[in-house]
């Protein structure tokens, strides 16, 4: 599941297209209807935790109510009005992939299975006419965004076919580039609420609020995944931060010392920031316990599905020696 750092990388890819107009659309999403994005201008993009937002306007001015506070417009490039002329001559998009892109990439979209199973990209029908339109993108378990290239098949499927993944949405921009969205859930949304104090990758991340949440009398591994306090934090960051802080995932937050919880928050922030930086430098992600057999000290790593009753259950890795449980696990009493 893409976590905060991955979504930031997608945000970076998208932000290079801000100020450009959508000339052509493609993609398999029936719910979203990619053609509704035709000729709109991408005027802003924001990332909040694991969610990405793209703002489309009907005109190049990008005027209207509801812009996010905090100067979200400041990075907009000068708008490119000249491109509108070219766009006017562009034929309207056909509905069902009859159109073929210059590189033939659209052809594969017709191979897409479009049964009732393809219902994961829930969305409203179309945006409000004339209004600013925010497209919310969630990445689920396997979502991704590619810029100026399509994802290719990494292996053959069960039938032995090498079939490339089919993007749900493709946006071709007047600058000549394109964005392809894979396995994303997309829907039109109200103006996103900006809450950087919850976002683990924001400079405004509110440590005090996070520490207070961690101090609850529940296993810390539950609290870490709570997006109300740790927006952008996912299972990988959870496992790695707990290992680095030497905290057992089922330790009760209320029984851990303040310095201990401080250390945990430090590692959450540091690991997330390093991961993000590594992404931009093309480095592979480096984990110490996540999906590992042994911890760096050579101990056997345990794994178990953990989560609050009725809540999100996630496979969790930890080292029982490096991460002792607080309070210690009860040992069965043998009575004779
Ligand atoms: Zn260990």
UniProtKB/TrEMBL annotation:
Task: Tell me where in this chain the FPG-type domain is found.
Answer: 288-324
Pfam families with a match to the protein in the record:
H2TH (PF06831)
According to its UniProt record, the EC number is: 4.2.99.18
UniProt entry tagged with the keyword Hydrolase: yes
Q: Which domain of life is it from?
A: Eukaryota
Subcellular localization(s) per the UniProt record: Nucleus
Which SUPFAM superfamilies does the protein's record reference? S13-like H2TH domain (SSF46946)
Show the ranges annotated as biased composition (Basic and acidic residues). 74-88
Where are the stretches annotated Disordered?
61-102, 108-127
GO annotation, biological process: base-excision repair
What does UniProt give as GO cellular component?
Answer: cytoplasm; mitotic spindle; nucleoplasm
Keyword annotations for this protein?
Acetylation, DNA damage, DNA repair, DNA-binding, Glycosidase, Hydrolase, Lyase, Metal-binding, Multifunctional enzyme, Nucleus, Phosphoprotein, Zinc, Zinc-finger
One molecular function GO term is: DNA N-glycosylase activity
- The record places domain Formamidopyrimidine-DNA glycosylase catalytic at 2-188
What does it do? Involved in base excision repair of DNA damaged by oxidation or by mutagenic agents. Has DNA glycosylase activity towards 5-hydroxyuracil and other oxidized derivatives of cytosine with a preference for mismatched double-stranded DNA (DNA bubbles). Has low or no DNA glycosylase activity towards thymine glycol, 2-hydroxyadenine, hypoxanthine and 8-oxoguanine. Has AP (apurinic/apyrimidinic) lyase activity and introduces nicks in the DNA strand. Cleaves the DNA backbone by beta-delta elimination to generate a single-strand break at the site of the removed base with both 3'- and 5'-phosphates.
Q: What PANTHER family does this protein's entry cite? A: ENDONUCLEASE 8-LIKE 2, FORMAMIDOPYRIMIDINE-DNA GLYCOSYLASE
Give the record's subunit note: Binds EP300.
**Name this polypeptide is given:** Endonuclease 8-like 2
What organism does the record attribute this protein to?
Answer: Cavia porcellus
């Amino acid at each position: 599941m893409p976590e905060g750092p991955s979504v930031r990388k997608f945000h970076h890819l998208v932000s290079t297209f801000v100020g450009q107009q959508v000339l052509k659309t493609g993609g398999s999403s029936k719910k979203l209807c990619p053609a509704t994005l035709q000729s709109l201008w991408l005027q802003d993009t924001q990332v909040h935790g694991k969610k990405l937002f793209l703002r489309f306007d009907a005109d190049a001015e990008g005027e209207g109510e509801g812009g996010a506070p905090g100067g979200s417009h400041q990075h907009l490039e000068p708008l490119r009005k000249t491109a509108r002329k070219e766009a006017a001559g562009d034929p309207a998009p056909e509905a069902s992939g009859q159109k073929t892109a210059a590189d033939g990439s659209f052809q594969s979209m017709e191979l897409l299975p479009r049964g009732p199973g393809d219902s994961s990209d829930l969305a409203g029908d179309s945006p409000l006419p004339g209004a600013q339109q925010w497209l919310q993108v969630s990445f689920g378990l396997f979502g991704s965004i590619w810029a100026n290239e399509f994802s290719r098949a990494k292996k053959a499927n069960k039938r032995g076919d090498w079939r490339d993944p089919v993007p749900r949405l493709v946006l071709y921009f007047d600058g000549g580039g394109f964005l392809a969205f894979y396995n994303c859930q997309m829907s039109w949304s109200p103006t996103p609420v900006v809450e950087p104090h919850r976002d683990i990758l924001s400079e405004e991340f509110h440590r005090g609020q996070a520490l207070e949440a961690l101090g609850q009398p529940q296993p810390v591994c539950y609290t870490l995944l709570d997006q109300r306090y740790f927006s952008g934090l996912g299972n990988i960051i959870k496992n790695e931060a707990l290992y680095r802080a030497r905290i057992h995932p089922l330790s009760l937050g209320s029984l851990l010392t303040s310095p201990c919880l401080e250390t945990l928050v430090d590692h959450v922030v540091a690991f997330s920031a390093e991961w993000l930086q590594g992404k931009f430098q093309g480095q592979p992600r480096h984990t110490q316990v996540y999906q590992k057999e042994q911890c760096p000290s050579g101990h056997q790593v345990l794994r178990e599905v953990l989560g609050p009753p009725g809540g999100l259950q996630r496979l969790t890795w930890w080292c029982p020696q490096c991460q002792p449980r607080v309070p210690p696990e009860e040992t069965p009493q043998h009575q004779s």
